[in-house]
Design goal:
Structural class of chain A: mainly alpha
Order of helices and strands of chain B: HEEHEHHHHHH
CATH architecture of the largest domain in chain B: Up-down Bundle
CATH architecture of the largest domain in chain A: Up-down Bundle
Shape of chain A: elongated
Number of domains of chain B: 2
Number of strands of chain A: 5
CATH class of the largest domain in chain A: Mainly Alpha
Number of helices of chain B: 8
Strand content of chain A: 5-15%
Strand order of the largest sheet of chain A: 4-1-5
Radius of gyration of chain B: 22 Å
Strand order of the largest sheet of chain B: 2-1-3
Strand content of chain B: 5-15%
Helix content of chain B: 40-55%
Number of helices of chain A: 8
CATH topology of the largest domain in chain B: Methane Monooxygenase Hydroxylase, Chain G, domain 1
Oligomer: heterodimer
CATH topology of the largest domain in chain A: Methane Monooxygenase Hydroxylase, Chain G, domain 1
Radius of gyration of chain A: 24 Å
């Protein structure tokens, strides 16, 4: 195939970040301008004291030129993240529901506009904790019954970014398991826990 | 494991040598045995590549016992501790233990076939957690530091067969990609 190997399985984190930059966010501009028509849509008008809603990429670009202040989304606050982290820890069975572009958005905002956020270092460590808790759950999930039987992995509420890290490995591992699966259906049932249960009825294992 | 016609790995895995016994005399093929005789005699033992042995065995010109990497001895070792069996050593440094096992299973009758596949599947499943941990560890580890190769993870890594190595590389690569993204800082890059 013509694509490089790293791009074949799906989207890369950078591509996902690019997609996340299409989401809209509120900014308070530091300059005035009337409506502006760009290829992607019509943005503005920009009038300093009042906020306006623009795509994230535009907000970041303006922010880098120090022409706006980004209004952080309401979930990107210490209280909300502490709450999410607590729920995530308590919920041992599954994953907490995060907005689709949660990780990407929070990362670029912390990278580019950390001075617009309150207590960015605490936010950073909360996000890191959250990631670690979820990673630990993924790791446990990978060794769960479902994966071991080559059938499924519980990924409800994982964000596309987390999936992109997991997918190449999992797809290959599952393909291998499926190709090693014995072909007869009745054998599979005999065989739920023990690998060698198949020959039992005949008593002539070699 | 793709059995794609164009898959180089499949072709290479078919090349593992299998020790076969001829059930009839074959004139003119003595060179397969490596000797100076002109003919192959009945009951002669010859090491044949699997792709040849398969066809001959399906036509009942040859028979073969289960090759050493899949015998009961290995089976018991896998049952005892799947992660410490060095599959790579069983099939030669660059072999494909699972692939070849599956190809052999294709030739076998129903019951031994299911047996063999179960051994393969169980081995894979039991080795998967170690493989996954190792890939994750290598994706995040700092490779500028010298590593101590005494740990069990490194021992496991030495024993990986062809497809496991590939899986390891895939896991490591995607882990690295993600880590690189988390560590990157789009604030410093200026306009992107």
């Amino acid at each position: 195939m013509a694509l490089p190997k790293t791009l074949q399985p799906g989207l890369t984190p950078d591509e996902l970040t690019f997609l996340a930059e299409e989401e809209t966010i509120d900014i308070v501009p530091l300059f005035s301008m009337t409506r502006v028509r760009l290829l992607g849509g019509i943005y503005g008008p920009f009038q300093p004291p009042s906020a306006s809603r623009v795509p994230l990429w535009l907000a970041l670009s303006l922010k880098r030129k120090r022409k706006c202040r980004i209004v952080p989304p309401e979930w990107l606050s210490v209280e909300r993240l502490t709450g999410i982290l607590k729920d995530e820890k308590e919920n041992a069975e599954g994953f907490e529901r995060l907005s689709t572009r949660f990780i990407e958005t929070s990362k670029v905002l912390l990278d580019v506009a950390s001075d617009d956020l309150s207590q960015p270092s605490i936010l950073r460590s909360l996000l890191k904790d959250l990631r670690e808790v979820r990673q630990a759950k993924i790791r446990i999930g990978l060794q769960s019954e479902g994966v071991m039987r080559g059938s499924y992995l519980q990924v409800t509420n994982l964000t596309p970014l987390e999936l992109s890290e997991l997918k190449p490995f999992l797809v290959k591992a599952m393909t291998m398991m499926q190709s090693l699966e014995p072909r007869q259906e009745e054998d599979e049932q005999d065989d739920a826990g023990q690998g060698l249960g198949v020959g039992n009825g005949y008593g002539e294992e070699d | 494991m793709d059995d794609n016609y164009f898959s180089l790995n499949s072709i290479l895995a078919d090349n593992h040598k299998l020790s076969c016994t001829f059930t009839l005399d074959v004139p003119g093929l003595g060179y397969l045995e490596g000797g100076t005789e002109n003919d192959i005699h009945q009951h002669a033992k010859v090491e044949l590549p699997f792709w040849l042995a398969q066809t001959l065995s399906l036509n009942e010109f040859t028979t073969f016992p289960l090759p050493p990497p899949y015998t009961n001895r290995v089976k018991s070792a896998l049952n005892a501790s799947a992660q410490s069996v060095k599959l790579a050593n069983l099939v030669g440094g660059n072999g494909w233990w699972y692939r070849w096992g599956r190809r052999i299973a294709d030739v076998l009758d129903d019951e031994p076939q299911a047996d063999l596949l179960n051994v393969l599947l169980k081995a894979f499943v039991n080795r998967l957690p170690a493989l996954q941990d190792l890939a994750a560890h290598h994706a995040s580890a700092d490779h500028t530091l010298p590593e101590n190769s005494t740990s069990s993870g490194e021992a496991f890594r030495d024993g990986m067969e062809g497809d496991e190595r590939e899986l390891f590389a895939i896991g490591q690569e995607s882990g690295k990609l993600s880590k690189g993204w988390y560590d990157s800082n789009s604030g410093r890059k200026g306009g992107r």
